[in-house]
Amino acid sequence: MAAYWKANQRRLAPWLFLAPGLLMFAVYVVIPIFQSMAISFYDWDGLGVANYIGSANYAELFDDDAFYTSLWNNLLWLVLYMLAVPAGLLIAIFLNQTVWGMRAYKSLFFFPFVISQVVVGLMFAWFYAPNFGLLYQLIETLTGAKIAILADERFVTYGIIVAGLWPQIAYVMILYLTGLNNVAPDQVEAARLDGARGWRMLWYVILPQLRPATFIAVVVTVIGALRSFDLVSIMTNGGPYGSSRVLSFYMYEQALSEYGYRMGYGAAIAVVLFAIMMVFISGFIWKMWRDETER
Amino acid sequence: MVHLTRGALAVTAALLMSTSAFAQARELKYYADYDPIPLAAMEALIADFEAANPDVDVVLQNFDHEGYKTAIRNFLTADSPDLANWYAGNRMAPFVNAGQFMDVSDVWEANGLGDSLGSAKASMTIDGKQWGVPYTYYQWGIYFNRDAYTAAGVEVPTTWAGFVENCAKFQAAGIDCVTTGSSALWPIAGIFDYINLRTNGYEFHMDLTAGKVAWTDDRVKATFAEWAKIVPYTTQNHAAIDWQDAAALLVQGKAANYVMGNFAVGTFKEGGMTNDNLGFMVFPEITPGIPRAEEAPTDTIHITAGAKNVEDAKTFLAYVASAEAQTKWNTAVGQLPTNKNASVPADDPFLVAGFETLSTAYALAQFFDRDAPAEMAKAGMEGFQEFMVKPDRLDAILERLEKVRGQAYK
User: Fold this and answer.
1) Do residues B198 and B341 share a domain?
2) pTM of the predicted structure, to 2 decimals
């Protein structure tokens, strides 16, 4: 035993170090994923007996209007949330100057990410509220139209996405600020000597060096967009008659909420959401793997 | 001679007996979800119960009102208390069917509750057995601002046609005829329930919520047609505001009528309304000749299946069902006792009106989200909200509700 250990120490040690983490991950993340998938084939109210019904939950899902509304809203979230990346970059570049008190400004710009999403949601809900909300009054003064954004099915998802962008931009900004600190100053000098300025400098010299930061920012933004539960729950509870539902919220509504006793159906929705996320996660992991093996 | 051993024995015996006098009182765990005023009233009730039963110690753990609705699904299986709050009718069905509430028909038998709690018995009965004890209910109706009526120069209506006519006059005066806050969905279910009860009657409403009638039925369309008459005069952005925000509109005189439960009177009075300018009227008749049914959502206490102290729990339920306990609790909270032998304070015109309304009602409905099963209730209320915002989508909405009906009652 001791001889085997001595001979293979180098190979075995990493696995032994990883073992506790892997065990926790397996028990609390991986196995529950398979359990959820299993539950989606049953009709279960969470309290009584579970009945096996095969793929009936999925058949019902594909015929469900609320599911397609949620899918569409998730798509909107995914696309519009990506605006956080360039916005975060611009603010990071803006803040990357040595002006007195810049650290205070950076903290203030980072503040939205620090406060709880629930608080962000509440604040924006008041901002949009009819009669006393600031944005409502602004729109009324500018256009005369009395639009309560969170009550209007055309605008509600956009309203919630704007609320979500506020902390997300702060998060991406910090990622880029770190990245900008690591930009090689000699390359910038060389480029300046060659006459690069402004937009060309940004696109050809700075951005390529920010590739790792951009990658992380995109990963985090995609996952955040697909996971957006807190804001939908706090601001509209699914929106006027379900118009602002997203998949994560629909799953909660069906399985865990006051009127939801359908664990199997909720699990089916969760599996669909998982499948969508896996597309992106596989892409990210493949890219990371490729980067690591190239090194 | 000092009899040491005998003396020692005597002292030990005395000590043992005195410790048994301080013996641990039997504990009764009670989980509840009261708002501050009902909580104070229940604590007073518990103090009275403990005075009458000194060897029982009731330990009340109070949850946040909304959070309780999710917490109960957890604690009934894991670490259940002896007693728990919940609601009557279809709302308690999931827990009864899962065997998590205890059958208390024996408490009803032993204390003659079938007679004294007669009006609420049907809503506590599943499969011929009773599963809890109702201790309070409250009336729903139309609360109105008399000052708004005077400002628009309008009389209190006695018919539905009169009510709708008044709406046009309110609009001319810049006042919302009807206000509501539908962001939590349930307030507008009250409007639907009443219009349905008045247009088609109690039996039809019960059949509809029990899933025996199609949502695309002409009689349902008739209900929505009546509702469509007042939708244009309802507060515009109701989907973005809570019931409390709508209450503020009524208090400020920006709205005239509010279909609400009696619990809102406290909120109206806190906002500054008084018995002089706050009025209450029964929802007017729509189809002539239909017997008058009312909404009276009932709050209940149940013994959980995992209860450890069943004996004392049953004694507590019997106490809660008694006329004195109910009179005291309901007077403090401003609701109505379910025990017909209890009394109502004569100086509160709303309680007096409510007691009168409910005791002369033909039948009592439990409210849409308690009469209909959870999935149907959610889909129904969302449909109502969509109808109020987009009345022209009625057919699509009814078809969708019909689809849910096919699923929800299996």
Assistant:
1) no
2) 0.83
